[in-house]
């Protein structure tokens, strides 16, 4: 008992040391270079931090989407049922959704670039253990569910931490385009995850499914270790001025006020009591319903309703994701041109979405459907990205992770429920449909009613947010 108590005390001391020192934001004595020199050196130092958050988030998708790619082999080689795979996937989503807020609070005020690199390593470690268990043929479903859920938990603050690092290096009129470019990381990671996992299994593990977990996990461990020590999380860590000073912008009032507050006070004041954060949480749910409602069901919809081949159905996701890559960059840049009016740009995207979805609903050929899906991907990834960017303007940088995490938690818990379970109940011909507002919705065509409800509600909520953004922008630039 005395030995166990000593271990616990050492663990607590070690944890406190790591959180206070290794992940702390360093604030060395200012070098006094002057803003002209700092501006000249800015891009060189910023791109280091940007490379870390881009590649770390890319790798997080390598150890996330590899499960989907491995499912056929898991059924064939290990006899895992489809139902069991569904529960494993849901365990990841649930832990991910909860962790976005809980771990987001822990990460706030820390070196987020370093923290997310460390969390990538933990997620990769869980994935590595899963792969080894499969190789040893000792992988009970319950244990895989726990390990994969932990992977989801460790990955959960990745997006918010990336936004935090980028926001510390950029200003209101520049961060949109950089976050838009960063957003490509998960599109690419998700697209190549299956290819990389399968290559590793075939070339290094004789085609065994365990290799689809081990190979991407090793990549994640190496990139995470590199990310711990490469680049700075904040210009101030180099002894420079804040990014707003370097580029001659006003430091937001929220950042000034938060500088004298405790972490808990910041959370209560700028997150829990902020109507703008809660409105963005609600808007994100509706946007998530549209995005996931398309990306999850497009292959099945086109095969069942339009009688496409399996290959034609699978290709729909590629066009949607390619549209998303282009949209992330275009809409992020455009919101910068409008001096940070993210909600306005999101509303424009959603209005256009309401028209373009008609091509998806009434299209009959692969060309028509894929063209519509490319347009929908380009449009819906606008608000999906900009809601997170909009949060940045309403909270201090020290509360960005938890506030952005909160919008993600809402999306995963409520949006995911409607987009996956709700759409399945409506579309399944063997079920009785779903009753919404006294109306029975049943069949693929009725899923589009949910699309339009979600689009309209998100526009209404974002219109209110746009008013708050306008007041903030006028106060900052007048």
Structural class: mainly alpha
CATH class of the largest domain: Mainly Alpha
Shape: globular
Looking at this structure, what is the CATH superfamily of the largest domain? MFS general substrate transporter like domains
The end-to-end span amounts to 65 Å
CATH topology of the largest domain: Growth Hormone, Chain: A
The average pLDDT value, as a whole number, equals 82
Low-pLDDT regions: none
Helical stretch tally: 19
Biggest β-sheet, characterized?
2 strands, antiparallel
Could you characterize what this model shows?
Helix 2 (35-62) runs parallel beside helix 5, helix 14 (275-304) runs antiparallel to helix 17 (366-394) and helix 15 packs antiparallel against helix 16 (342-362). This protein has 2 domains: 42-249, MFS general substrate transporter like domains (Growth Hormone, Chain: A), CATH 1.20.1250; 252-478, Growth Hormone, Chain: A. The chain has 478 residues and is mainly α. The mean pLDDT is 82. It is 79% helix and 1% strand. It contains 19 helices and 2 strands. It has a two-stranded antiparallel ribbon with strand order 1-2. A hairpin with a 2-residue loop joins strand 1 (434-436) and strand 2 (439-441).
């Amino acid at each position: 008992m005395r030995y166990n108590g000593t271990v616990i005390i050492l663990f607590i001391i070690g944890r406190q040391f790591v959180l206070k020192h290794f992940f702390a934001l360093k604030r060395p004595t200012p070098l006094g270079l002057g803003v002209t020199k700092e501006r000249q050196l800015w891009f060189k130092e910023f791109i280091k931090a940007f490379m870390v958050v881009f590649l770390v988030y890319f790798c997080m998708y390598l150890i996330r989407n590899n499960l989907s790619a491995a499912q056929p082999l898991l059924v064939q080689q290990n006899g895992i049922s489809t139902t069991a795979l569904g529960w494993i996937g849901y365990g990841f989503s649930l832990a991910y959704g909860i962790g976005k807020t809980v771990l987001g609070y822990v990460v706030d005020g820390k070196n987020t670039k370093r923290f997310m690199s460390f969390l990538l390593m933990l997620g990769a470690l869980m994935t590595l253990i899963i792969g080894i268990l499969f190789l040893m043929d000792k992988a009970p479903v319950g244990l895989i569910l726990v390990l994969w859920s932990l992977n989801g938990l460790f990955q959960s603050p990745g997006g918010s931490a990336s936004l935090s690092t980028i926001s510390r290096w950029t200003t209101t009129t520049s961060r949109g385009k950089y976050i838009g470019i960063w957003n490509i990381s998960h599109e690419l990671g998700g697209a190549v995850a299956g290819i990389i996992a399968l290559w590793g299994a075939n070339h290094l593990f004789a085609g065994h499914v365990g290799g689809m977990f081990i190979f991407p996990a090793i990549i994640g461990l190496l990139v995470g270790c590199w990310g711990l020590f490469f680049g700075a999380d904040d210009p101030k860590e180099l002894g420079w001025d804040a990014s707003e000073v370097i580029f001659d912008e006003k430091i937001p009032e929220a950042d000034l006020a938060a500088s004298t507050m405790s972490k808990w006070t910041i959370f209560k004041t700028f997150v829990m009591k902020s109507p703008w954060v809660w409105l963005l949480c609600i808007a994100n749910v509706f946007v998530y319903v549209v995005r996931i409602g398309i990306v999850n069901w497009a292959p099945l919809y086109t095969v069942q309703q339009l009688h496409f081949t399996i290959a034609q159905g699978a290709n729909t996701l590629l066009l949607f994701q390619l549209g998303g890559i282009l949209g992330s960059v275009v809409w992020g840049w455009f919101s910068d041109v409008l001096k940070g009016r993210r909600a306005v740009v999101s509303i424009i995207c959603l209005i256009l979405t309401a028209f373009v979805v008609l091509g998806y609903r009434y299209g009959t050929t692969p060309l028509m459907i894929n063209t519509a899906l490319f347009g929908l991907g380009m449009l819906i990834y606008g608000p999906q990205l900009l809601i997170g960017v909009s949060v940045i303007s309403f909270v201090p940088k020290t509360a960005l992770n938890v506030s952005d995490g909160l919008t993600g938690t809402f999306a995963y818990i409520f949006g995911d429920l409607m987009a996956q379970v709700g759409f399945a109940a409506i579309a399944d011909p063997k079920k009785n449909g779903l009753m919404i507002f006294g109306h029975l919705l049943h069949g693929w065509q009725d899923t589009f009613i949910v699309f339009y409800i979600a689009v309209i509600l998100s526009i209404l909520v974002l219109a209110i947010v746009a008013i708050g953004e306008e007041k903030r922008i006028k106060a900052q630039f007048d």
